[in-house]
Amino acid sequence: xxxxxxxxxxxxxxxxxxxxxxxxxxxxxxxxxxxxxxxxxxxxxxxxxxxxxxxxxxxxxxxxxxxxxxxxxxxxxxxxxxxxxxxxxxxxxxxxxxxxxxxxxxxxxxxxxxxxxxxxxxxxxxxxxxxxxxxxxxxxxxxxxxxxxxxxxxxxxxxxxxxxxxxxxxxxxxxxxxxxxxxxxxxxxxxxxxxxxxxxxxxxxxxxxxxxxxxxxxxxxxxxxxxxxxxxxxxxxxxxxxxxxxxxxxxxxxxxxxxxxxxxxxxxxxxxxxxxxxxxxxxxxxxxxxxxxxxxxxxxxxxxxxxxxxxxxxxxxxxxxxxxxxxxxxxxxxxxxxxxxxxxxxxxxxxxxxxxxxxxxxxxxxxxxxxxxxxxxxxxxxxxxxxxxxx
Length: 391
Fold this sequence. Notes:
Elements: E1 10-11, H1 14-17, E2 23-24, E3 28-32, H2 37-42, E4 49-50, E5 55-59, H3 61-69, E6 75-78, E7 86-90, E8 105-109, E9 112-115, H4 119-127, E10 131-135, E11 138-139, H5 158-165, H6 169-179, E12 185-187, E13 190-192, H7 199-202, H8 211-221, E14 229-235, E15 241-249, E16 254-264, H9 272-277, H10 286-299, E17 306-313, H11 321-329, E18 335-340, E19 353-357, H12 362-377, E20 383-387
Parallel strand pairs: 16-17, 16-18, 19-20
Antiparallel strand pairs: 1-18, 2-11, 3-5, 3-6, 4-5, 7-9, 7-10, 8-9, 12-13, 14-15, 15-17
Helix pairs in contact: 6-10
């Protein structure tokens, strides 16, 4: 974790990149640098993971031959990989991969390591504080853009100024205090405390983890039509069913164009036993989750040309499996962009510096540039880092 006030506002994340196809991957595991993106698009070669540091693909002999013939640079890291999960782990600062990973380690790029281990083994390392991503074994192409580039104006807008005037830091902090257990909440007429938002206790009926019910209750209280609120179940760890919550605000004139606002609702502690009983997650990711709650409260008072979809993911701390599940069972057609809000409230050194993670896609950098303009346009008093590599 960078020693900055924030790590957030990750723009144009993987969701907006993924095509709707879901063909099963197969063949050898290969890695490519993101600068090969144009060639992958041009020659219709798929990938199973598209990150800022490297892409991962499963290519058969024909696909590898096509890539070589067209001058694409790639590295084969595992031959004839059998069924089973692939995990991307991020090492702690100045750390080498644990010896236990050696038989399963297939690739390393800086602090990021690809390993092929079973779910229960991955869970053990996650419980020890390692950040992990479960890479789906689904091969996806690079679909065409949702449409022509949009003209946008990120200068000061009376509508946005009006929105800002309707909120306050006090209100935003109140959301964080409620969902992190610093304040009690009322759910179904009963006063209780959200002690942990870890996915396992949250969906196993633990009285310490009523966060999902609280979230549902809040949306229902704002009179959104029930058809615009979707509970999205998916397979979590240990055979449990976990859930995302999706709020859709339909566009008035071009509803086929969609903008996603996302954050992960779940939290964790340094080990699973602690996460089951205490994981307040005030910054990670109460900050982003509270912002979506405040957005949902405010946006119901406005109408938009395009569809806005607000999504609270769970399972993020267990390998990003909630967002993976969303992409697998929802069409990404028409998605123009994604703003993902994660960990941006804690300012350890008081420099008011936030990180805007934009990655390598030009479309994402456009969104990041809009954030830059907004910081000045509304005199928010924030500094920022504009991150492309390492995002």
